[in-house]
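FIELD: query
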Amino acid sequence: MSMLALRKFVEAIVVLFSDEYLRAPTAEDTARLLAEGERRGFLGMLGSIDCMHWVWKNCPKAWHGAYTGHTRKPSIVLEAVASYNLWIWHAFFGMPGSLNDINVLHRSNIFTRLTDGTAPNVSYTVNGNRYDMGYYLGDGIYPEWATIVKAISAPRGNKSVHFSAMQAAIRKDVERAFGVLQSRFAIIRRPARVWDQSTLQNIMTTCVIMHNMIIEDENGSASTEQVFNYMGETAIVHRDLDQAVLHYVEATEAIRNRAMHHKLREDLVDHLWSLHGAH
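FIELD: result
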C-alpha cells in the first residue's frame, strides 16, 4: 500500500509541476544567468554540468552488467545543470551506470534547443571577441566543445593556474546541488529499492522538482501564481525540412567546435586575469 501511495504521489507531482519547475531557461532566465556569470567573471556562462549516480539495489540480475560502472554497483545516472543558486535547469535521468559522462552527454537532450533553433539568443564579448552561444562549466572528462568550458589540465603560468582555480571553484555549483538534493531526500541518498524504471524516473524527477520549489521559496524570486508562457522566444520556427536539416547540421558543428572551445577558454583566461590584476 505504501509503494502504491508513493507511485501515485510522484506521478501527480510530475504531471502538475514539471512545466514550471523543470522548465528550460526562458529569455528572462537566460539574461539573469548571464548577468550572474558576468559578475563572477565568466561571461556567457549559463551554469555547471555534471552527472550523479543513484545506486539501484533491486536492479534485475540480467541487467547488472549494463548498469554497473565505476561505482561497482548497478546505478542509474542523472545528468544535471545547476546555476549559482543551485536551481537545477536540466535533469536527464535514466542512463545505465556503465556509461560515463561523455556517453550520457551524447544521449541527452541538453542542446536540443540550440540545434532546433528555439533557444533564447545569447550574445556576449570576451577579451574583444564576440560569441553567440552560452556555455556550461564541466570537469575534465567532458569533450572540448564550444558550449562546455573545462579547466586546463596542466596549467602553466599564473594566468592559467588562476583560471583553473576559478573554474573549479564555480563548477562546484552543480556538485553542491547534488549534495543538497541528496541531503534533502533520503530516498535518493540511499540505494533505490524500486524494481521498475518508470517509478525510479518519477521519483528522481519529483525530488528535482521539490528541490527547485525549495530554492524558489528560499530565494523569494518568483510568485507561485506566476504563469509561464514558453511560446514566444522558444517557439519552434516553422521552416521546410531542408532548412531544418541544414540548421541542425550547422548548429551541431558549432556546438562541437573544438577550435572555438580553445579560443573561448583563452579569452576567459585573459579576462579573469585582468579582473584578478584589478584587485
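FIELD: remark
The chain has one domain: 2-277.
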